[in-house]
Amino acid sequence: MKGLRVLDESLRMGQQALWATRMKTKWMLPIAPVMDAAGFYQVAAMAPVSFETAAMYLHEDPWERLRLLRQHMPRTQFDFLVRSRNVVGWFPKPNDVVELFLKTLHKIGIHSIKVFDGLNDYRNVAFHIQAGKQLGLHVKALLNFAVSPVHSDDYFIGKARELARLGADAIVIADACGAILPERARTLIGRVRAELPDMELHFSTHPNSGVSTPCYREAIRQGIDVLWGASTPLANGHSFPPHATIVQLAREEGRAVDLDERCLVEIDDWFYWAAYKENRPCHEPEEFDPIAYEQTIKHQIPGGMMSNLESQLAGVGMAHRLPEVLEEAGRVRAELGYPVMVTPFSQFVGVQATLNVVTGERYSSVPREMVLYCRGYYGQSPGPIDPNVLDRVVGDQPMIDPSAYYHEKMVEKARAERGPLSDEELLTTIFLNPTALDTFNKNRRPIEWDPTARMPLVALLKELGKRPRLRLVEVRCGNLRVGMSRDAGAVML
Amino acid sequence: MPEQKIAYHLSFSDVIRILRLVDENPFEELQLEMEGLKLHVVQDKHERSPTQPSATKAPVSEIAPAAVPEPVREPLGAAVVPAKNAQIHGTPVLAPLAGTFYRAPSPGALPYVEVGSAVKEGGLVGILEIMKLMNHVTAPCAGVISEIRAQNEEFVEFGQVLAVIDPERVG
After folding, report:
1. Residue at B30 is within a domain
2. Per the CATH hierarchy, to which homologous superfamily does domain A290-394 belong?
3. pLDDT at residue A344 above 70?
4. Taking CB atoms and an 8 Å cutoff, what residues of chain B touch A316?
5. Domain count, chain B
6. Helix runs in A278-432, H state only
7. CB–CB contact B63 A347 (8 Å)
8. Is B31 in CB contact (< 8 Å) with chain A?
9. Which residues sit opposite A87 in a β-bridge?
């Protein structure tokens, strides 16, 4: 059997789940040469969230980050996550934006994209797959996993066949909510594997429910080609399992894995330091809790969204009604035909459930996007939408063809409006909302980083020097002796 | 590259441990010796409050997909709302949740309603953005807008009066 490959998600999901996506490029570049040598199959460089956050909150140009990563990891194949028709940003984009975006990624040196649609309605991403292939990109397409009466193994087999027909180079069984259990991982991966024996098959799940390790073990046993993981300080919780766990599992299962463990140790060490300096949490592996699992599985609200719901409810003085909202979210999710609880559908369900509880009358207040969802604007819901809800939300408005805007000329229009801009700059103006763009343009500055940052002894001395209450510091390390004192003549090495 | 990989004996994890030890050390003097490293630190007697917060502090958590983070606000007691909403002559249009209020469909566009606009029951008064979703704010009854109390792009609280309708002046 072929060796197991590992896709690194430290710089994408790791920081998104554990650092609120606030990792600056300065924490990525010093370790880049080691990541480049570690033997990862691919490294996830960026996603819509990290693109927007880099610009809006870190005031870094995401394109510049990509270029720097490319420069400092010359051997690595990078990937970029593309969120369905949103591509990057909140509103859906026509084909011309998708095409310009993929071309720009390709030009900057991104090798691979992973495309997903939360409804698994592949009309939305068929163009991405085709355009990506034409450019010579390696195209991975996601089967978005969810636990629901609709999301059966047969359903996924059908969807996998569809992706193969569309020309995807790889299929990812992606469990965005950490909902899959080991037994299901065994049957589902086993069946997709049997159906498409030659397809490059990936699997990813999150450790938040405490079963990612046995799920990954099943995936290895079923002949998975690639597993997704992260450096230990950027793993666990709602990130992915640690690389070290994957290496251990492969060893136990007698499968070769092509990762340099010395590199992994160094990468871990660096990101422990980054987390310490930036005051970010590191997560321990969780234990499986069957009761918590049963509760979560009904609504499958992503962990990242939970805190937002809590603060919304606290804002209305209804923090105590969270259990009610979650129960309602389970109902709304079913009524909407079980969309996979990822952006934007998790917001639709979460916000609608909150409105239903807070107003006391179900669907009396309905967000505009919810109406569009029910009218088919985002594509076909996995299961049917409840007829009563449809009636209440849509009334006699006509259904919408989700492909109606695919051929609009958004790039041309943006060029005409915004004048001469590079493709990168133009895409930034299309992706960011006006407020975010304004913030970015006002605050953006060149990415700064310290190429010598990865020297622990120097870091120790600098840190000690920052502590004003220390009168005297003496350090001996190998041949090096350093003495620092606030009183002249006090050092006695 | 592989040969020069572990170019240091001291790891960052060691540095973190040492710094924690220094920060939590209640004594004036600290001497530490570990593989290849000797450290001697003397600190002031008087100020010994830790300067470096621990890295295990609670994370800043937020909705994963690029949502604009909502500022964490004090829970709004019921007592605050009536004060803000005092003296209403007519039927109030209330915010169904906390969010950003928009008076027009897009920047620069004409507002949905102005003072003096006639509205039908269920007619559109504005948009309330909640976690990136656009909610229609509709008129609870027919009448004429007598007051608009929330500014465009204002962050409004749950139950805040956004506008007032005079139901007497229908038509």
Report:
1. yes
2. Conserved carboxylase domain (1.10.472.90)
3. yes
4. 76, 97-98, 158-159
5. 2
6. 290-299, 303-315, 322-335, 345-359, 368-374, 387-394, 410-418, 423-431
7. yes
8. no
9. A83
CATH number at residue B133: 2.40.50.100
Distance CA B69, CA B164 (A): 30
Smallest Cβ–Cβ distance between A281 and the set B13, B56, B135 belongs to B56
Which chain A residue's Cα is nearest to B31?
A474
Report which secondary-structure segment, H or E, holds A214.
Answer: helix A212-221
Asked whether residue B23 falls in the same domain as residue B94, the answer is no
Q: Output the pLDDT for position A82.
A: 97
Chain A residues 66-85 within an 8 A CB cutoff of chain B: 83
Q: What residues contact A402, with CB distance under 8 A and at least 6 apart?
A: A121, A123, A124, A376, A377, A378, A379, A380
Residue B38 located in a structural domain: yes
Asked if residue B113 and residue B33 are part of one domain, the reply reads: no
Q: Which domain holds residue B11?
A: 2-42
Residue B74 has a CB neighbour count (10 Å cut-off) of: 8
**In a 3-state reduction of DSSP, which class is residue A420?**
coil
Q: Is residue B54, in this structure, part of any structural domain at all? A: no
In a domain, residue B35? The reply is yes
Q: Give every CB contact of residue A197 below 8 A, 6+ residues apart in sequence.
A: none
Give the three-class secondary structure for A460: helix
Best of B3, B24, B35, B41 to disrupt the A interface (most A CBs within 10 Å) is B41
B64 touches chain A (CB under 8 A): yes
Distance CA A73, CA A65 (A): 12
Q: Which of B13, B25, B76, B81 to mutate to test the interface with A (most CBs of A within 10 A)?
A: B13
- Tell me if chain B has a CB within 8 Å of the CB of A188: no
Q: May I ask the CATH architecture of the domain A5-277?
A: Alpha-Beta Barrel (3.20)
- Single-letter amino acid code for the residue at A488: A
The ipTM (two decimal places) reads 0.88
Contact check, Cβ <8 Å, B55/A351: no
A117: contact with B, CB 8 A cutoff: no
Contacts of B32 (CB under 8 A, 6+ apart): B18, B21, B38, B39, B40, B41
What does the domain layout of chain A look like in residue ranges?
5-277, 290-394, 456-485
Q: CA dihedral in degrees (B61, B62, B68, B69; nearest 10)?
A: -50
Confidence of residue B170 (pLDDT cuts 50, 70, 90): low
pLDDT at A109: 97
pLDDT digits (tens, 9 = 90+) for A56-97: 999 999 999 999 999 999 999 999 999 999 999 988 999 999
Closest CA–CA distance from residue A412 to any residue of chain B (Å): 21
Give the amino acid at A248. Q
- As a whole number of Å, the CA-based R_g of chain A is 24
B53 touches chain A (CB under 8 A): yes
Whole-number Å distance between alpha carbons of A435 and A262: 45
Condensed to tens digits (0 to 9), the pLDDT of residues B27-38 reads: 888 998 888 889
User: Which of B44, B133, B159 is facing A348, going by the closest CB pair?
Assistant: B133
